[in-house]
Amino acid sequence: MVVRILCSLALSPSNARALLPLARAAAEAGHEVTVVSPPEMAGVFEGEKIRVLPLFTDMAEIVLSLLQQKRIDFVPADPFSAQTLLATACGPHVTHAYRQLLDVAEEFKPDIILRSGVEFAGHLVAETLGIPDVAAPSGGGQYLDPTLALAELNERRGELGLPGQDSAASIHAHGRFDCMPPEYAFTAHDIDGTFAYQQPATIVRTETGPGWLRDIPGDKPLVVVSSTNVFASLMHSTVFPRILDLFFDGMVAGHMFEGLDVAADPGMVVNALMPGDANPLTTIVKGLSQVDCTAVVATRGMPLDPAAVGDNVLVHDTVPQPLLLETAQLLFTHGGYNSVREAVRAGVPMAVLPELSDQAHNASRVTDLGLGLRVPSAAADDVADTVNRLLSEPGYGHAARTAQRHMLALPPVTAAVDHLVALAGR
């Protein structure tokens, strides 16, 4: 039985990487897979036997629209507020995405929709077509309050002339996927019908270890640092100057950036807004420079004060994180769910310094499970103290390896595809 699977993606490229193993396994099993995503995510599926339609709006443009509508703040009072995630996941942009996706669905005729956990146009299209939809592994999707989502999505249904729903559980009416064992689940709310499968060791087919990996000494613990600063995600977008305009109330040209090409050098903006130790990446590196370890830091485009970098710290724009974790003793992370799962898959403890959305919840869960610690702040001393404690106390490594074994006992991703096919057949 060949099943037609329509995948819908929104917001962070991490959602595309979380969905990729499922989509790839389905295509390799002979099923027809079409992905609708923002343009910035299309490259994740390069080389796969999957049709990709880059139709949806990029995250930066959604953020700009929500700022203009005053649905979110540039600097939210509570970066972990459920309302901020609610706006980016279920706001008015979903209505436009629904119409785009419905056009694709009417041509493709899907049997089931596989969506990222914070993409709800796919959920509404599935309701319209009377087919099931299932969410891929997602931190935001399992942190989002279903009751708040129901009210917001009913507004979207009203805009589209669709009947409203009464049950908050309707957003997961056909269940969801996860890569964490049930006893290590990170869900913030009760969600029925979860199918857990084993996350592959690597996501990118052609990913290999960089040459500099051979030069890292083996006599010191390796700490991998994943910088997922949301500012870094926005600053390279084409709408970044317009976002800054809103932040400065339309007066960017008249103030600190007059005569400068903000789009060409977004790092300059970060240095101006967060000079010196106000840049958390700088203080994180300062802290790691005090630790007897080798630290590999992925900046993802965030500027970094060179004077803060100790001899034991290696700085790169990006790193093959899953591969590095195979030989690491610690992951320093903001607590994004992909990184959490990758650390558990590798049996590596975590130091978590949350920034926004579900990351504070994830940090608390990591601490409760004994898989690591929440870093009190980005201050250098707090970073150094937390990392030293995690490296010196063996209990965290023991707990991480126990969780790893639970994860390795999960069924393979091919079993998740079989589950998807069974849902479609119903």
Structure write-up:
With 426 residues, this protein is of the alpha/beta class. Helix content is 42%, strand content 12%. Strand 11 (330-333), helix 13 and strand 12 form a beta-alpha-beta unit. Helix 3 (82-90) packs parallel to helix 7. It is globular. The two termini are 13 Å apart.
Write the layout of secondary structure elements.
Blueprint lengths: L3 E5 L4 H16 L3 E5 L14 E3 L5 H10 L13 H9 L2 H16 L3 E4 L5 H9 L3 E3 L3 H5 L2 H15 L15 E3 L15 E3 L25 E5 L3 H6 L4 H8 L18 H8 L6 H9 L5 E5 L14 E4 L4 H5 L4 E4 L3 H10 L3 E3 L6 H10 L3 E3 L5 H13 L1 H15 L4 H13 L1
Parallel strand pairs: 1-2, 1-4, 2-3, 4-5, 6-7, 8-9, 8-11, 9-10, 11-12, 12-13
Helix pairs in contact: 1-17, 2-9, 3-7, 4-5, 11-15, 13-16
Keywords:
single chain, about 425 residues, alpha/beta, six-stranded parallel β-sheet, five-stranded parallel β-sheet, 17 helices, about 10% strand, globular
Radius of gyration: 21 Å
**Which structural class matches the secondary elements?**
alpha/beta
Query: What is the tally of beta strands?
Result: 13
How confident is the prediction overall: mean pLDDT?
89
Q: Provide the low-confidence segments as ranges.
A: none
A few lines on this structure:
The chain is an alpha/beta fold. The two termini are 13 Å apart.
